[in-house]
Amino acid sequence: MNRGRLEIFSDAVFAVAVTLLALNLTVPGPGHGPLTGQLIHQWQAFTAYLISFYTIGVVWVNHHALLSSIVVVTRALLFVNLVLLLFVVLIPPVTKLLADYLPTGGFGSHLAAAIYGIGLEGRSVGFALLVEWTLREGRTQPSVPPDRRLAARLRYLVGPVAYLLAIGSAFIHPLLTLGLSGAVSVYYTFERTPTRIKGGRGRAIRGGSRTRHAAR
Amino acid sequence: MNRGRLEIFSDAVFAVAVTLLALNLTVPGPGHGPLTGQLIHQWQAFTAYLISFYTIGVVWVNHHALLSSIVVVTRALLFVNLVLLLFVVLIPPVTKLLADYLPTGGFGSHLAAAIYGIGLEGRSVGFALLVEWTLREGRTQPSVPPDRRLAARLRYLVGPVAYLLAIGSAFIHPLLTLGLSGAVSVYYTFERTPTRIKGGRGRAIRGGSRTRHAAR
Amino acid sequence: MNRGRLEIFSDAVFAVAVTLLALNLTVPGPGHGPLTGQLIHQWQAFTAYLISFYTIGVVWVNHHALLSSIVVVTRALLFVNLVLLLFVVLIPPVTKLLADYLPTGGFGSHLAAAIYGIGLEGRSVGFALLVEWTLREGRTQPSVPPDRRLAARLRYLVGPVAYLLAIGSAFIHPLLTLGLSGAVSVYYTFERTPTRIKGGRGRAIRGGSRTRHAAR
Amino acid sequence: MNRGRLEIFSDAVFAVAVTLLALNLTVPGPGHGPLTGQLIHQWQAFTAYLISFYTIGVVWVNHHALLSSIVVVTRALLFVNLVLLLFVVLIPPVTKLLADYLPTGGFGSHLAAAIYGIGLEGRSVGFALLVEWTLREGRTQPSVPPDRRLAARLRYLVGPVAYLLAIGSAFIHPLLTLGLSGAVSVYYTFERTPTRIKGGRGRAIRGGSRTRHAAR
After folding, report:
1. CA-CA distance, A131 to D179, in Å (whole number)?
2. Which of D7, D53, D205 is closest, CB to CB, to C73?
3. Per CB distance under 8 Å, which residues of D are interface residues toward B?
4. Angle, to 10 degrees, between the axis of helix B3-23 and the axis of helix D3-23?
């Protein structure tokens, strides 16, 4: 097994998920009142789509960074990655659910926001499992030194805890869930992978010689 | 011809199939009664989607492992692989069919479950053909020794036989088909490819030097 | 520019097209009469989908073989390839059109079959243009010798001419169009790329050392 | 990080976007009047899809050329690229919106054309940001010499300015927006990337030895 297919399969899943998200950006169309009204009616839905796109984008960037340091590909890793992807592909349908129910305002909108949060919670736990897998000696190059593991684990606990709050706050107001979810993505935008935490290497890696040694 | 495109094309098909699966996870939406009721009504559908996702995931992992040992790419291999993919892309529509008919409970639900089983049967036979192709001398590195071929063939007969049972049991209860299909995927979760059966090499392969020699 | 992205982009387009094809394999669903009747009603549609899948599969295999011999990637090649892909992505919608109109039997079914043929005609001309691009000295390794070029051109004229017949015969019976389209794909199943015509190299290329030199 | 995944993810997004475009090429189907009439009714929609396909194709070709010269992959680059992709995935839904409203002719068609223009404006600004990122010393190989940077910037201002005109002209006639959008794509069809402007290297790069040094 090599890392190439793991990356290609994951990238394709991320790419399809992100494109299908946008495909749901539809209005009822001609014969359902003025287009202006239809568009205004959906501003909450558009916000939901934007936050979901941003979330998938950030996950992709961090997935990219995390996997680029992995030097061993085991069957277990493939399955842990599948758990993450299971929840990534759920993002378009839960976003659509939220977008459909946000304008209705009733209990349905609270429940839809909670389900949206549950989808992101699963995604977040999936990523934390992937990070956990990389913490063992010899799985990444360079390995994460033992005294850095706790910091890495704590960092990846932020998402699961914050999404739990997002699920709970769905029953106060659905937009709170969206806001918290966006905040989590902002937090991980500036994320560094565990192997980079010990620093010194800088963020940029020259494409030239290094990629010849990288697994693809 | 090289193995790269065979893997990329297959990965993209697996990825799109798996994402489209989730896209069908929809409820009727606002104006069709309380969301809670709509969600409860679809628990069987959700189970079907979960089992189909798991099935495609396991096939992808095993496809990955099987192809990584192949050193010769022939036109025949590409077509055998297409037979497998033909049935992989059928998994989303047959899952949708089953999900639509499961709650109806009548003969339609039995028939839909049988068709779901037929789709997986085809997928399973497709994979067995792919394994059969690899058993010939010189096609994989290392080759499967002659005395191991029967064991490999028997192992890949389990799927086709179990899915036949799943098709038959669809006419007792549709959930039996689902349960048996899930059991098959559990069985192949712990699968090793023929070239690994003789063991000794371990499951993990270091990314560093080896992938330079692997076809991508 | 390198060949990698040309292949990845093309593969992804082929993969999405092939998966979307199957996604259209739906029946009206519960509440539209017995499922058995719905399924029988659509046997022509199922045949259309099968032939379209087979067609895209054969094009993918030949595209794979043709590109694997290319050693120069120019901007013009990328655009010629886009012409091919433009028609590949049209195959799912024209197949859906044909599948929708086949059971109606009237003039609509003849017209739909003709449009299906036009889509495949475009695809076929796109591939012929790609072959034409490769015939110039130094673009493939090995180059196609001048005395072989006429044979290659004739071989790739078979598709465009046969699809013209398929379009015409749509107005006799739509299934004639389908039958002819299937026959074209059978013909190209056994196709060899121009650079292979002069033979001697055999079909199988060892993955080991060669793929290191191939562009990906 | 290496360039490979950036390219694969982008390619997959482009590929899915381009295929989903075509998927929307549907007519109402049987029971909605003669097929001939349905098809004629949609010639404007078909034109919109063709122009959008061409636009995505040209962006893909230029993205390909631009990235092939990049030798440093930073986190910032990944996010700039995500901005571009955010608008690429919006092209199918805004094209569908335009296609739905073009035949209605009223204010809706003007507004839909303006939104179509806004989608392309975003896409164009995203690409200009990507070009801007590459202009810094040492990010591409060869680097863009300082005296060439202004020319590169001006060249990539043409798109954003032209799409602003396209948005404005939507309120005169929606087809003006489409025409201008098509013209922008024609302009960039003959585009050269900044690193090629200083010329001398020619457009064609041999696949053989060079791709070994390229990042994938």
Report:
1. 50
2. D205
3. 12, 15-16
4. 50
pLDDT value, residue A146: 85
Q: Given C79, C101, C111, which is nearest D61 (Cβ)?
A: C79
Return mean pLDDT, chain C: 85
d(CA A169, CA D102) in angstroms, rounded, equals 42
Task: Measure Cα distances from D181 to A149, C71, D118 in Å.
Answer: 52, 34, 11
Q: Are D83 and D211 in contact (CB under 8 A)?
A: no
If DSSP codes are grouped into helix, strand and coil, which group holds residue C206? Answer: strand
Q: Is A131 within 8 Å of A197 (Cβ atoms)?
A: no
> What's B207's DSSP letter?
S
Which element (helix H / strand E) includes B206? Answer: strand B205-206
If we measure between CA atoms, which residue out of C157, C23, C161, C10 comes closest to residue C87?
C10
pLDDT (tens digit, 9 = 90+) per residue, B84-115? 999 999 999 999 999 999 888 889 999 999 99
Please choose, from the candidates B22, D61, B85, the residue with its C-alpha nearest in 3D space to the C-alpha of residue A56: B22
Question: Which DSSP symbol is given to B143?
Answer: P
Which chains sit next to C, with 3 or more Cβ pairs under 8 A? A, B, D
Looking at this protein, which amino acid is placed at residue A146?
P
Write the pLDDT tens digit of every residue in C4-23. 889 999 999 999 999 999 88
Q: Is D72 within 8 Å of A206 when comparing Cβ atoms? A: yes
Q: Which residues of D touch C (CB under 8 A)?
A: 7-8, 11-12, 14-16, 18-23, 25-27, 29-30, 34-36, 39, 53, 57, 60-61, 64-65, 68, 189, 203-208, 210-212, 214, 216
Amino acid identity of residue C78, one-letter, is L
Map residue C73 onto helix, strand or coil.
strand
C-alpha atoms less than 13 angstroms from C-alpha of D96 in its C-beta half-sphere: 22
Contacts of B180 (CB under 8 A, 6+ apart): B162, B163, B165, B166, B169
Q: Do D3 and A207 touch (CB under 8 A)?
A: yes
CB distance B155 to B124 below 8 Å: no
The beta-strand segments (E) located in C52-167 are: 72-73
Cα B64 to Cα B165: distance, rounded to the nearest angstrom = 27
Residue with tokens 């010269």: D69
Q: Residue C50 burial by CB count (10 A; 0-12/13-18/19+): exposed, middle or buried?
A: middle
Return the percentage of chain B with pLDDT > 70, whole number: 88
Which string of DSSP letters, residue by residue, matches C4-44? HHHHHHHHHHHHHHHHHHHHT-----TTSS-HHHHHHHTHH
CA A137 and chain centroid, separation: 26
Provide ipTM, 2 decimals. 0.85
Rounded to whole angstroms, the Cα distance separating B23 from A94 reads: 9
Q: Which amino acid is at B126?
A: G
How far, CA to CA in Å, does C79 sit from each of A159, A182, C6, C9, D104? 44, 39, 10, 13, 34
Q: Which residue of A has its CA nearest to C12?
A: A12
Question: Per the CB < 8 Å rule, is B68 touching A2?
Answer: yes
Q: Give the model confidence (pLDDT) of B134-179 as tens digits.
A: 998 888 888 888 888 898 899 999 999 999 999 999 999 999 999 9
Across chain A, which has 216 residues, the per-10-residue mean pLDDT values are: 85 94 84 87 87 96 91 92 96 93 90 96 96 89 85 91 96 95 93 47 36 33
Angle between helix D107-134 and D91-101 (nearest 10): 160
